[in-house]
Amino acid sequence: MSDPVGFSANALTIISMFKDPKELVDAFMRLNKRQKILAVALLTAIAGAALLVWACLTGAFTPTITQVMLSDGSLNMTTGDVGALSATVLYSDNTEGGEVFWASSNKAVVQVDDNGQLTAVSAGSATITAQASNRKSTMSAECIITVVDPLNGYSISVQRTAVENYAYIYVQPEDDDVSQITIYAKSPSGVVHTPPIDRNNLYHFYTETGTWTVYAALKSQRGTYEASKPEDFVAIEINDISPDETDAFLAGLPVW
How far is CA 133 from CA 33, 86, 213, 247, in A? Predict the structure, then answer.
């Protein structure tokens, strides 16, 4: 294809003469009007492309990170628990993102993966850090996690009395720091009661006959323990619910 204005050759000549400004000006002045317009357009495009490349390489268009926010600033976990943290990254152009690097200060206590998923490994404390970085800035946020060992459970036993629907129920926690024990009795029909108890651990079953299931829940500053193992439950057969407090008293039971 012909080049009637000889622009391509002249444009290359102009570009090759960039190292000598005087020759560049002289060559430009020798161009006709149309060639000058095309040359200016070409040089403008080259300058614009160079500016764009420079901006991309230097991060000129990259917004500054202004803040990293975490879903929690502190957490309490129990050994073996799993959990999660989420992060929000705020930028100077009022946009948001979530790309962060996660790290744990003590992997022997808490581990965190690339998605903020937590695993409590052992008792202790650890700081989880979420860090966001770009060409212009780096920001981070922290969450302090405290991990405690779970409560170990309890032993439970039932002692029958001379009165059919009265029984002593004893719960012995395996941990010394248990502050509250709640005993539950599930009736044959499935209704769960919290039976009244006197100071001698004597319980009165008076609503249904059949097999009752008795279990407990523990509470301490470390957390709670809910019955889950087979040995946490004990069955007691109640065949007569007619005896009342008077019958128990006459039988010598300490109901008052």
Answer: 51, 16, 58, 77
